[in-house]
Amino acid sequence: MRCWHATSAMSVRSGIAVVSIAGLGVLAVGCATATEPSEPSVPSSRAAPSSTTEATTLPAPAPGERWLRLSPEQGTPGTKVSLDVACLDALGTVHSPVLDVGPLAGNPDGHQPWHQFGTATVHSDGAPGRYTVSATCGTGQVSATFTVIPR
Questions:
Q1: What is the enclosing helix (H) or strand (E) of 16?
Q2: Which residues, 6+ apart, have CB-to-CB distance to 136 below 8 Å?
Q3: In degrees, to the nearest 5, what angle opens at C-alpha 116 toward C-alphas 114 and 120?
Q4: Which of 32, 35, 62, 77 lies deepest, with the highest CB count within 10 Å?
Q5: 88-103 pLDDT, tens per residue?
Q6: Considering only 11-20, 39-48, 95-104, which range has the smallest mean pLDDT?
Q7: Measured between alpha carbons, how far is 68 from 144 in angstroms, rounded to an integer?
Q8: Other beta carbons within 10 Å of 131
Q9: What single-letter DSSP state applies at residue 41?
Q10: Once rounded to an integer, what is the mean pLDDT over residues 8-32?
Q11: Model confidence band, residue 57 (pLDDT cutoffs 50, 70, 90)
């Protein structure tokens, strides 16, 4: 940006607009005068401080995206397992032949109602092997695999 100042009919002085943003977001503009047009400015080698804000919540899954995650993904009989389920449509009951699944619940403030959490416990008589954990999500299904390992 350039500022132009006429000091007489025969002479024109130019200046460069100086724009700075203060830490609180206040914009200040000023013009400096010069006797001759100035050369293009060279960027300063000093980097301006920046701040980034990271999201603290997960965004809603994209249409058709859904998941069922288990943590841990393996354990012995009696192991507690955390469930993390995302479903934008109607979520059905989570089923497993080897896990006793408790109720799912969302955020108590009602945020992200599509994102549910719960816990499960590996059956005390769970035989070693791989088992599918699943639930309906609208007209589709979400699933994960849990492995029971020997004691």
A1: strand 12-21
A2: 90, 91, 92, 142
A3: 155
A4: 77
A5: 989 999 999 999 999 9
A6: 11-20
A7: 6
A8: 18
A9: P
A10: 38
A11: low
